[in-house]
Design brief:
The chain is α+β, with helices and mostly antiparallel strands and about 110 residues long. Belongs to the UPF0213 family.
Length: about 110
């Protein structure tokens, strides 16, 4: 059975990069060495792996990667910190709760 990974990197500019791979160690080496000059992370090194999850179903892993890529910065940070209460709070409708719940910095890319 194959294993797949969804991961989040924190870049040197404090932005986050979300990716998907079937070999996390190899993919991290590619990011760190700058193998692909067209990759988002190329000029944002050094990088820190701040979160990853393992999957056995490739379609599930791809769906989770796409879901996380659509999240706000603060929602990603709640996931990274495993702060489930804040993750739920940040998932609520922004127009209803947005400005009231934003106590942290929201600068940088999602």
């Amino acid at each position: 059975m194959k294993t797949y990974f969804v991961y989040i990197l924190k870049c040197s500019d404090h932005s986050y990069y979300t990716g998907f791979t079937n070999n996390l160690e190899r993919r991290m080496m590619e990011h760190h060495t700058g193998k692909n000059k067209d990759c988002y992370t190329f000029d944002k090194r050094p990088l820190d792996l701040v979160w990853f999850e393992t999957f056995n179903d490739v379609l599930n892993a791809i769906a989770v990667e796409k879901q996380i890529k659509g999240w706000t910065r603060r929602k990603k940070e709640a996931l990274i910190k495993e702060d489930w209460d804040k993750l739920v709070l940040h998932a609520k409708n922004y127009t209803q709760y947005g400005s009231q719940q934003d106590n942290g910095s929201s600068t940088g890319s999602d």
